[in-house]
Amino acid sequence: MTVDEKQIRTLIEQWAVAVHRGDLHGVLTDHADDIVMFDVPPPYEGARGIDAYRDTWPPFFQWQAQGASFEIVSLEVTAGEDVAFAHALLRCGTPRELAEHPENRLRLTLGLRKEQGRWVVAHEHHSFPSVLPPVQ
């Protein structure tokens, strides 16, 4: 693993801890001012810019206060000289949701770029698998 990949892995792990704690300042750390995030809930066109990104978190923190988990299960990082991407699977849900669907995972994809010698998240995408009945 390269130094850059280690730095990015640490950045993402610290972000996940901040999310789990409901620490908005920690969640915003190392995110680009022009971040674009596509999330599970609306807005359907995504959150564009750090202010819109910031505004998405309070409702999630309220939901999470019910005892929900937000834990990285797996994380893969690929880094070039000035751009990188990462993808992860997370256990994200209330104890009841996780008991009913223990295999369900939140899918996370991140695009990062190096700005002034440090890595920042420029793109973030969260999704859950759609559980639809089989097509007949």
UniProtKB/TrEMBL annotation:
<protein>
    <submittedName>
        <fullName>Uncharacterized protein (TIGR02246 family)</fullName>
    </submittedName>
</protein>
<dbReference type="Pfam" id="PF13474">
    <property type="entry name" value="SnoaL_3"/>
</dbReference>
<dbReference type="InterPro" id="IPR011944">
    <property type="entry name" value="Steroid_delta5-4_isomerase"/>
</dbReference>
<dbReference type="InterPro" id="IPR037401">
    <property type="entry name" value="SnoaL-like"/>
</dbReference>
<feature type="domain" description="SnoaL-like">
    <location>
        <begin position="8"/>
        <end position="129"/>
    </location>
</feature>
<dbReference type="InterPro" id="IPR032710">
    <property type="entry name" value="NTF2-like_dom_sf"/>
</dbReference>
